[in-house]
Every structure is written in C-alpha cells, then in structure tokens.
Amino acid sequence: LFAYAILRSIPNKLGGVIALLMSIIIIISFSFSMKNKMSSFYFNIMFKIMFWFLINCFFLLTYLGAMPIEYPFDLMSKIVTIFYFMIFIMIPLM
Hints:
With 94 residues, the chain is mainly α.
C-alpha cells in the first residue's frame, strides 16, 4: 500500500507511475548495494535516525494508501512522499 499512496499523491498519471516504480526500485537496489557485513556507518547515530524516519514514512504511507482520497489524507500523502524520497537523497550524503 505504500507504493499505492505514492501513486495517488502525484496528480500526473505518468509521474505517479514513475514515482511508484522508483520507490520500489530504490528499496530493491539498497539490498544489493550494502556489501559490508559490519561497517561504522551502521553504528552512526544519524544513520539510525534516518533508518527510523524511513520506517515511519513507510508505515505512514501504508496507512495513507488505505485511506480515502480526501483533504487531510491527500495532503499528508504528498508530504510523506516528499520525505520518503528525500531520505534516499540524504543517505549517500552522510
């Protein structure tokens, strides 16, 4: 449902489909990019904060994907979608 909330939050049909595909591809690509078993990156406090922020965004998007498309839920899904993609932009910068 998290990908469905991303799809619904973008009013353009093609843009919504591209965002939906990118959200799934990003999650899959992270499983292949993490090669080290132990790294100091995993123990970094900023990484832990970003990780839990990502988990919260995931659950919020899942909840918002199940809600009807009305005023508060529509706006919330747009905001959380922006946060979701900003996390993946900020992780390599850390």
